[in-house]
Recover the amino acids of this structure.
């Protein structure tokens, strides 16, 4: 069965600092991997996705993620965090064209 | 272009009542999925519909049902509401050939 773990429930970083959010997955085949962001009371916005090819994926808002098959990981990174990045971040995995399994989320707080 | 629209945005129901949630996908999107997000958790898959047929069902009781109409809009119905059904219900749509879902802002259901 597919599953997603996000080891960090809550992360706090200072504005301008770099960020890495961890995501590990369990999936029996080639996974399709996603990162979504959710602001309080809002729906989910797709940051980036990985299907195949280059293992370093660029997304919106300056985010990137790296797929490491050997580690079953898909960590999200940003070189310099802005106060507006404070939100909940969800990693998700799924097969093509079907439902996704989401991780429990990581809440990001940004200090001024 | 309009995104995924959901209605209503908020509603309060009493235990035992029935509720219908509505979703209009992005124009041209043929696949609609429903997710339940309980406070503090990641979204959980409920249903997926494609071309008006059910393609997947998550681990939810039969009190939950859904359908997709010829215009690809969708309804999620929940009977005999329980307090535990209180959650944010998210609808997402995707193109047949697009692997990333676009989510709506959700319907916040409170059961009292």
């Amino acid at each position: 069965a597919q599953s997603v773990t996000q080891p960090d429930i809550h992360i706090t970083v200072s504005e301008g600092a770099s960020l890495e959010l961890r995501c590990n997955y369990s999936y029996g085949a080639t996974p399709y991997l996603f990162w979504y962001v959710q602001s309080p009371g809002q729906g989910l916005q797709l940051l980036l996705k990985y299907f195949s090819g280059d293992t370093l994926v660029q997304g919106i808002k300056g985010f990137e993620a790296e797929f490491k098959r050997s580690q079953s990981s898909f960590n999200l990174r940003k070189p310099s965090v802005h106060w507006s990045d404070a939100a909940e971040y969800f990693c998700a995995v799924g097969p093509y064209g079907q439902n996704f399994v989401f991780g429990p989320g990581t809440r990001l707080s940004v200090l001024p | 272009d309009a995104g995924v629209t959901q209605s209503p945005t908020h509603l309060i129901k009493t235990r035992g009542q029935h509720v219908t949630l509505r979703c209009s996908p992005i124009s041209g999107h043929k696949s609609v999925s429903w997710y339940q997000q309980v406070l503090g958790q990641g979204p959980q898959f409920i249903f997926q519909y494609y071309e008006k047929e059910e393609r997947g069902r998550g681990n939810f009781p039969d009190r939950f049902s859904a359908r997709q109409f010829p215009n690809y809009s969708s309804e999620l119905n929940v009977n005999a509401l329980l307090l535990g059904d209180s959650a944010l219900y998210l609808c997402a749509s995707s193109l047949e050939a697009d692997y990333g879902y676009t989510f709506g802002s959700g319907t916040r259901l409170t059961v009292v």
Observations:
- Chain A is about 0% helix and 50% strand.
- The mean pLDDT of chain A is 92.
- Chain A touches chain B at residues 4, 32, 34, 36, 41-46, 49, 51, 90, 92, 96-105 (CB under 8 Å).
